[in-house]
Every structure is written in C-alpha cells, then in structure tokens.
Description:
Pseudouridine synthase, 11-stranded mixed beta sheet
Amino acid sequence: MAQVIKLSAPQIHQFWEIPVIYADADLLAVDKPSGLSVTLLPSQTPDVPTLMKLLHAGIAEQKSWAVELGITYLQAVHRLDAEASGLLLLAKTKAAFTALANLAGAGLLDRTYLALCQGTAPCESWTADQPISTKPAPAGFYRLDERRGKKSSTQFEVVQRFSRWTLLKCRPAYDRPHQVRAHLAGERLPLAADPLYRGGQIYLSRLKRNYTLKEGETENPLIARPALHSESLRITHPTSGEALSLTCPLPKDFSVVLKYLRRYAG
C-alpha cells in the first residue's frame, strides 16, 4: 500500500507529499499539510490548486498511488480549514460517503483538534454553542450569528497552560467552516498566529530571557500559521460496523512552538 501520496502543481512550483494514515476498501485517511485547501474557497480563483482537485487529477491519470490504493472515487467526509494541519477522512465509495456525511451533518463525527490559543482559559472545560454565519465576512472570517447562523457546538478542554497561552483539545460538532477558530475568538481566546481572528504571533525573544538577535537578522515567529491541528477521529465503520480510531501526529511547526513554550513559559 502506498504510504505517501505525491501531488504537484507545476504552474506554481509546489509539491506535496501527503502521508497516508489509514486505508481500506471504503475509507482513506490522510495527514493534510497546512496551507493547502481541501476544496476551493469563495475567495480563491478557479486555477488555485486544492487537495481534492489534485487527488481527482491523480486518480484520472492513474498515478501509482491511486492504483495501489484502489481509488476510483474519493470525497472528503468533513471540513478541514486550509490553514489547519492534520487528519482528513475521505470516502472511497458513494455508500461510505453518504453514511459518514450524514453523521457529520448531524454533529455525530467524534473529532478532536489541538489548538494553541492566546490568553488564559477561564476554566478547565466548557462548551461554546453559538451559531455561526453561513457566509464569510468580506475580510474572510466567519461571525457568530445568533439570529441567522447555523447551529454549532464545540467542546473545549485545557491540556496545558502557559504564560499568556493555552493549549486546548477541541471537539467540534456540526462541521461549520472555521468553527473552532470562530468559537475561540468569541471566547476572546483566538488561535496563535491567526491574524484573521486577531490571534498574535509567538516569538522566542518574548519567551527567553536575554535573547538577542545577531546583527542584520530578522526574527521569525515560532509558528507562521494558525495553530490548529486535526489530531484524531473515532467512528463506527460504515461497512463493518466496527469501532475505528485514527490519530495524526503533530507537524514540526506545532511541535517546535510547544517545545519552546514548555521550556520558557511553563
């Protein structure tokens, strides 16, 4: 079985190696890199490469990974923000897609995200259930909209506290766009490195005492994209009926920022 799906967009000189987390006759789970949209966003032009567009092109061209994995049909079961990294579940049959998409629409997919947010969580666990707008604002963010928004709910649990930052486990239901980000912003706990929701950057110079830059150097933030990672998913398999639990390791950028926070801001 292919362990990595190789995708490329020569027109923009980009290349991706997508790790395969799980595959069987009905399902495919992959580790999506941050910065790659799953499907085309309203703000993007049709020529922008997306994960699904690249996957479908590879299937049509019978790339080696598509043949090895036996893929002739593929659809994403749930959302995953372009900026987020981590586990994405896809269906390899129409029957599996229908069964799991119905669960996602009913808020019954058991997914867990890791989120590093700015600020101090008010308690150890809580639930945010404000409806979220159906369309993005002109700037691209989604508002909490009690009157016209769609029902949504996210459970939050503190994993670790740092000085001015908090690591959370997040369990979203109803699968709305930007759900975790919008709910955290509503709690005044925006994701680290998420300027769309006013989340600040994390710099080593602000964590480590006596930190100095060499002459002519410019300091980069410890993580350069919203600190959100799709960590795990648990479902009942749509064909076998057996419990299936999948996990996805943290990417390097998320691991690095946590390493420095634990060392200097614990």
